[in-house]
Design a protein that fits this description.
The complex is a heterodimer. Chain A is of the alpha+beta class. Chain A has eleven helices and 23 strands. In chain A, helix 2 packs across helix 11 and helix 5 packs across helix 11. By secondary structure, chain B is an alpha+beta fold.
Chain lengths: ~425, ~180
Amino acid sequence: MATDLDLKQLVDVDNGLVSRRIFIEPKIYQQELERIFARVWLFLCHESQIPNPGDFVTAYMGEDPVLVVRDSEGQVHAFLNVCRHRGTRLCRADAGNSGSFTCAYHGWTYRNDGRLIGVPNIKDAYYGELQRERFGLIPVAQLDSYKGFFFATFDAEAPPLLEYLGEMTWYMDALFDRREGGIEVIGGVQKWIMPCNWKFPAENLGGDAYHVQWSHAAAVKAGFDTGPTGKTESGGSMVCPGNGHVMICVGPADGDGIAAPEILAYEDEIRAEADKRLGPRFGLIKPIVGTVFPNWAILRAGARTFRLWHPRGPEKTEVWSWVYVDKAAPPHVKKAIRLAGIRVFGPAGTFEQADMDNWQECTRTCRGVVTARYALNTQMGLGHERYREDLKAWASDFRLSESNHRQFYRRWAQLMTAKSWAEL
Amino acid sequence: MRDDVIREVEQFLYREARLLDERRFHEWLELFTDDVRYWMPVRSNRYPKISKAIKILDRDRYVEEELAKEDELALLDENRETLVGRVACMDTGMAWAEDPPSRTRHLITNIEVEPGDSVSELKVHSYFLVYRSRAETEQEMYVGARQDVLRRVDGAWMIARRKVILDQTVMLAKNISIFF
């Protein structure tokens, strides 16, 4: 493991300097898996993906494969998706419905509540001595949901989910709870591999409004999106409600990027309902893109999408991206949101396709030992940020700032050096 | 199907591939009808209903189809206007995913031609292997099948519908900034 002293030198947020070594060194990556991904609450799926008994999706927490299943009695579980016998990945489908799961290797069978119920040759080859009750699927340490979003942690000592999310719940509500009934996920997941370190997309969607006006200028000029996060004249702020969760917010009267007329008309119609549900804070600020620490990005900028950046080694990230809609929205609006999501975000999205080269280049140049001696500049707006009671968050004074980058890496370093949750 | 029609369709698809590889995107756009749907649905891993790996509780709701449905998520779901918009992006000098440009090679094979739903239309199946070289040493391959509807308009073939089926569930390419 990298020593604590090392990490404190590598992430110097007080001076806005972040070492490039944290994006490339295998031992730091391994420590991230252990101290971040195996400890914090991670997003798994939305309830609309598993509405009925037996419904399941497979997921990942860090590099650990996970099976999320609603058992035959309706209770949701999350297990390591790994057979207890020789350790194969048990369920190889992305989604489906089942009362039990049988391993393809030797045929061990687990009920959808995790119990081991079938072992071929248990009487003769095992002499009836195998303690089946000890070899059920390994559950996560804690599983909980917030407004239909399921999260889990592998650490029994992690604080409860609501405490972990803290004030970020209001910022999530501003995307997902504008209307009675919340949201639902459109069927299908976009999955693809990006040759970059997972922290580059995490910091980007959590706090980089600065790149929009340049990286995504082509899509804005061609009319795919209005690109509001790059504008500066109408308020807005980078906010951090705590625990490393970060959110890009535009001014309350700003649009959120969508150019489609049927969606704009719908947003006008529901504004009063959203205002009422979200309260006076929604009159001050409009949350638009953010990162729920560490790797769950949530958006309503151009596209209504959320996505996970699954770490796959220092130089590789596997993206899983979904599109969501207000459950109560009419069919023509749901269709327009689906199409906007595909055309603006996702691997072929006119916005998002431009990000991969940049994140790849940011990562790959870290291989240069001399290059890696020079820290990344994370100084924009340093010292021009403060805690705002009205937002219940740390906030930048100007809309363009890297205050969220600093908050994200501050939390990253805290988790990487703390030996237990008690230290945090 | 008559041999001369098959030959004509083959030549049409080969020429289309060359327009893309030579980055003649405005000429390529002229091959599409105004009502085109250009669609690449996402794909997922599913156990078939007969699989002994699972014991399905609700067979009526169970989905074994790998390809997403018409109203579900896709990698591309375009009409003529958005195809034009994607080409317009590349004309801005700021489309960074293609600047410097990708080098592509569209290999089109396994062409089958069937009668269409009307006398002026054909159903055409083809396979593709698209190679992309990018920047210094990057290379990616996109492999799959296409299901096209070609329509005869003013004596020339045009693409009225294209369904692109990619053979990966987790796409190994970092993005899609090219056409198929």
